[in-house]
Amino acid sequence: MRPYELAVGLRYTRARKGSGRNTFISFIALISMAGIALGVAALIVVLSVMNGFQQELRDRILSVAAHVEIRGFPDLADAPAIAAMARRNPHVVGTAPYVTGEAMLSEGDVNRGALLRGVDPAQEDKVEDIASHMRRGSLASLTPGSFNIVLGAELARALGVEVGDSVVAITPQGTVTPAGTLPRLKTFKVSGIFEIGMYEFDSGLALINIDDAEKLYRQPGATGVRLKLDDMFLAPEVSRALQATLPGDVEVRDWTQNHANFFRAVAIEKRVMFIILTLIVAVAAFNIVSAQVMVVTDKRPDIAILRTLGAAPSSVMAIFVIQGALIGLIGTAIGVVSGVALALNIETVVPWIERTFHIQFLDKSVYYISDLPSHLERGDVVTIAVIALALALVATLYPSFRAARVNPAEALRYE
Predict the structure, then answer these.
(1) What is the pairing mode between strands 180-194 and 148-152?
(2) How many domains does the chain have?
(3) What angle do CA 25, 29, 31 make, to 5 degrees?
(4) Of 255, 280, 298, which residue constitutes the final position of a domain?
């Protein structure tokens, strides 16, 4: 085999039969290989699960939140005209006006604060997918003048109401009477209950018809317009373009700004997990150092013979770099294959583990998301493989440098 450095390096990765010392050295190399494979597989699976959670979180948020919102200060002067101007952007595929305000919902002795959003059911389907999260009733029940209300599941549970019951909405805007300023009250009939799976929305959001909301808050028109784009990831770019073309008394905000805390938290967790698991791969990779140092010590006579036959120090160094790099390459390959296979089938493997061992990783009553989502990204796999190979290669440098500095005369003195 040419070059000979590759032939000798590959030979040194295999233990000779009957040699206990060589068998032990190969066992250490095998442990290092297994450690790299385990670390790489764990890193791929964890990052895939974090990507899955991020995607699930984004989908749930955008089922009730628009890609872009146009708001007025305090009101939008001409919502239909603003919506028409927004639709000129080629990436805007749907618009819907809305009225929003705070209210206290009361049923008996129970009071809960909530955000009341007035919507037009006919247009709301163009910008969000809340209809798919309805557990009881329907969004179409929010007809003008009916004063029906659709509640989040946690909000309805806290108030102790079901479809057909009534709740009283108390708004902060007061009504001036001879007896003084009194809070404005209006009774609504519960016509539907939705469940997004996020506590922020399920416990603090209620939907009513936009005409009823204008009457309740005495609004002359919509307070804003919600937009849906053909590509959600273009929201920052589209919002900047709209801000430059729309009148100066409006504010344009996209979903990455309105819910930045959620995605920042997930990104930080993903980054921390990546660092922690990379350290695990690093520990496994640097086990190669101990194995290679033992190999160099054991192969000192062989190194001396190679040197006396004319092998250059760089060739000796290349032999042990090849040997250590091969351990890292095999370990990384096994880890990538097993990690990708597990990440692609985690939705099947996890339920099997739960059924077999009678455990539950995510309690639905606590986490809402009862299944482990997984989204494998090619970029993550490539980055992990490159880092693992780089760490394995770095781990071979010190033992290889020691091998290159072996003195042939001293090594053969007692042979």
Answers:
(1) parallel
(2) 2
(3) 115
(4) 255
Q: How far is the C-alpha of 297 from the C-alpha of 366, rounded, in Å? A: 56
Q: Is 104 exposed, middle or buried (0-12, 13-18, 19+ CB in 10 A)?
A: middle
Pairing of strands 110-119, 205-209: parallel
**Are 313 and 404 in the same domain?**
yes
Could you tell me if 241 and 129 lie in one domain? yes
Residue corresponding to tokens 């989908």:
59
Lowest mean pLDDT among 154-163, 266-275, 364-373: 364-373
The reply to whether 248 and 303 lie within a common domain is no
Residue 178's domain spans which residues? 66-255
Report CA-CA distances (Å) from 52 to 235, 320, 347.
21, 41, 11
What pLDDT is stored for residue 302 in this prediction? 76
Could you tell me if 382 and 282 lie in one domain? yes
Place of tokens 């054991």: 298
Q: Are residues 295 and 402 in the same domain?
A: yes
Regarding whether 392 and 290 lie in a shared domain, the answer is yes
Q: Is the pLDDT of residue 94 over 80?
A: yes
Task: Let me know whether 402 and 309 are in one domain.
Answer: yes
Of 239, 255, 271, the residue that ends a domain is: 255
Determine the Cα–Cα distance for residues 112 and 104; give it in Å rounded to an integer.
6
Confidence of residue 280 (pLDDT cuts 50, 70, 90): confident
User: For residue 256, which of 120, 49, 54 has the smallest C-alpha distance?
Assistant: 54
Q: Is the pTM of this model over 0.85?
A: no
Q: pLDDT tens, 117-156?
A: 999 888 888 888 788 888 898 888 999 988 999 999 989 9
Residue 57 is encoded by which pair of tokens?
A: 């979180």
Per-residue b or e along 164-178, where b marks 16 or more CB atoms closer than 10 Å to that residue's CB: eeebebebeeeeeee
Length of the chain, in residues: 415
Tell whether omega for the bond before 183 is within 30 degrees of 0, i.e. cis. no
Q: What is the pLDDT of residues 343-380, one digit of tens each?
A: 888 878 877 877 787 776 665 555 555 567 888 888 88
β-bridge partners, 224: 71, 98
Neighbour tally for 37: CB within 10 Å: 23
User: Are 285 and 408 in the same domain?
Assistant: yes
